[in-house]
Amino acid sequence: METDILTVRIKPMEKSDLDSVINMESEVYGSHHWSKDSFLSELSNELAKYFCAFDEYGVLVGYCGCWQILEEAHITNIAVSPNHRRKHIGEALFVKIIEECYRNMAKFITLEVRISNKSAISLYEKYGLKSLGTRKGYYQDNNEDALIMWTENIFYDKFKSKYEKNVENLKGKISIL
């Protein structure tokens, strides 16, 4: 039985969060990270949805974002502080994006992920995303290929039942406010 269940609060990203987000960007992605201006632009983009996860002390532990265009959502990033990985924060952020897709009637979710990022690929596959090819040399820092992943229609019973089962399992691992 787990006694130390992490509690996180997930809320829409605000301008006041950006210094912490940029610090985490640098920590997670090194010199090839988004600028503060990039995030400011995203926050003023009506198609963009960005969220931050904070621990019980108000410390940023992760963030995510996506663009929702008509019936499709494209995940731009999901990042978790290296000190907080393997605590289901990335999964909680991914679930937040799926919830937003349901709320806004986006039927399909797509993303690119480094082919070497096995833990992220495993998470996405757990929720039913499938690889539909690669983008050669997609990542500029090391010319690594990206796996292109998509969901089927998230309103289909097959996806919804997998999603609901995974969310129920997640509840026993992390508390989300």
Question: In words, what does this structure look like?
Answer:
The chain is of the alpha+beta class and 177 residues long. It has a single domain (6-176), classed as Gcn5-related N-acetyltransferase (GNAT) (Aminopeptidase, 3-Layer(aba) Sandwich), CATH 3.40.630.30. The protein is built from 5 helices and 8 strands. It has an 8-stranded mixed β-sheet with strand order 6-7-5-4-3-2-1-8, sandwiched between helices. A hairpin with a 5-residue loop joins strand 2 (48-54) and strand 3. The longest helix is centred in the middle third of the chain and has 15 residues, at 89-103. The chain starts with 5 loop residues before the first strand and ends with a strand. The model has no long low-confidence stretch (mean pLDDT 93).
Topology at a glance:
Elements: E1 6-12, H1 18-29, H2 36-43, E2 48-54, E3 60-69, E4 72-80, H3 89-103, E5 108-114, H4 118-126, E6 130-135, E7 146-150, H5 157-171, E8 174-176
Parallel strand pairs: 1-8, 4-5
Antiparallel strand pairs: 1-2, 2-3, 3-4, 5-7, 6-7
What does this entry show, briefly?
This protein is α+β, with helices and mostly antiparallel strands.
